[in-house]
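ugh ok so i messed up the first submission bc i forgot one of the chains. this is the corrected input, ALL of the components this time, i swear. 525 residues overall. if the numbers dont match what u have on ur side tell me asap before i send this to the collaborators (the ones from the other lab, u know who)
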Amino acid sequence: MRVHLVRDVLDKQLIDVSGQNAGKVDGIVLQLRADKPPAVRYIEVGPITLARRISRRLGDWVARLDARLGEGRGVPIRIPIARVALDSPSLRLDINADRTPIMALEQWLRRVIVSHIPWS
Amino acid sequence: MKRLLGIALGIVTSIGGFLEIGSITTAAQAGADYHYQLIWAVLLGTICIALLIEMSGRFAAVSKHTVADAVRERFGLHFFLVPLLLLFFVSILVLAAEIGGVSVAIEMVTGVRFPIWALPVGLLAWGLLWYGTFSVIENGVSLLGLITITFLVAALQLGPNWHALMAGIVPSLPSKQPSHYWFIAVSILGASVSPYLFYFYSAGAIEEKWDETYIASNRLVAALGMGFGGFLNVAVLVVSALVLAPRGISVDKYQQLPLLLSNLWGRIGLGLFALSLFVTCLGATTEIALALAYQIAQGLGWNWGEDLEPSGDARFSLTYTIVLLVGTLLVLTGIDPLKLTTLSMALTAASLPVAIIPFLVLMNDDKYLGEHTNGWLGNVSILVVSVLASIVAIVSIPLEIVGGS
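and heres the new structure output, hopefully the right one now
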């Protein structure tokens, strides 16, 4: 099957194994290889990659902000391409996004703000 | 049977949800300043929004995508962001105008100035969204909006000259102050053709899990619901032409608005006007806040849904919370709700092509719509009206602000 990275993968919706929305494909990482065609290695998801597409400086700023959220943060969230399957019009992940940094902001907001609002 | 009830409910809620501060104010100004001469603008706006709502529902039913979601997918990040930022700016102003409308309605009854009410109103709208479900908001508030049928009753009781009224259906050159005429004409278009409406509508269709079997009923709901809603809007214009115009009242203060009904029915009229304004503006407030949160959440691929608990979509729920807060703060500054309304309606008209052109491209993409893509008539009419409205708005806004004529 022929897949066009920009048409079929970039900016498409990701659905995780539990059926929840797990962001859009914000970036695609290729590996350049000597004497062989480039290979797709990862997709990237999240605000750092998104901001870098607008400007390098904005991306660096978002990355610094993100780094404050904890150990291992401050770098783009990468998912190996082997974990992704085409399921038009979306892409399916065979992992649970709750266990990845994709949902870190969602979980943080839930814990720090939403859970303190009565009857929520 | 269930489907029939759904159609009836859809039509009734569209009628109840049609009027809000923008359409009431612009129609009242048109009637007061130009008698029946601008009825064509109300009808044109109604036809356009009916067409757009039908497209938006069809798009969601066939493609299972919301409009915001598809704009990001189809055009990529940059083309998603530019319209988003522009629409966000304009929609926040419209949101503030609606919160102002609810607050002004309370002022009309209590006599206590409107800025005081901004915070309780913002909180009420937030509570509806945070604790309510999509159907409670969409159906409950819109059903209460049927109170606006009082404008139709008032128009009929006043007994318009039908012959003169019919003449207003055909566009004509202004009898006086041409730049003001065109400013009001595009404000009327901006008030009825609100882009947030078709973003909101496609998200609603996804929340209610529409599929291709909904295409016909969607068409019926859009045509009848918006059509009758448009009649109510014409009724406001007619009442204004018969009540305000003969007394030489040009609507330049929001305190003049209740005269539309109080002149006819005294205190009860005042109460009915205030209630109409309260209910419809509250409905519009929740819709705009939701529409903006939908746009962000769908564009960035978050969990979203008015039927989820806020803990299931924290980013989405906090987005509409922030949006409501910003709108409320704008009203708290004491900014004049009437000026804010007319300006934000004209700005909406000016920004129409930015929202509508990408949407039209999607509506013609058979990858999303298969055999259900747009016909040429719908494409051309929407494109021409939105581009013309935008040009006229861009020319007439500065003229209106400097007070030229």
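quick check: The mean pLDDT of chain B is 93. that seems consistent at least. Chain B has one domain: 2-401.
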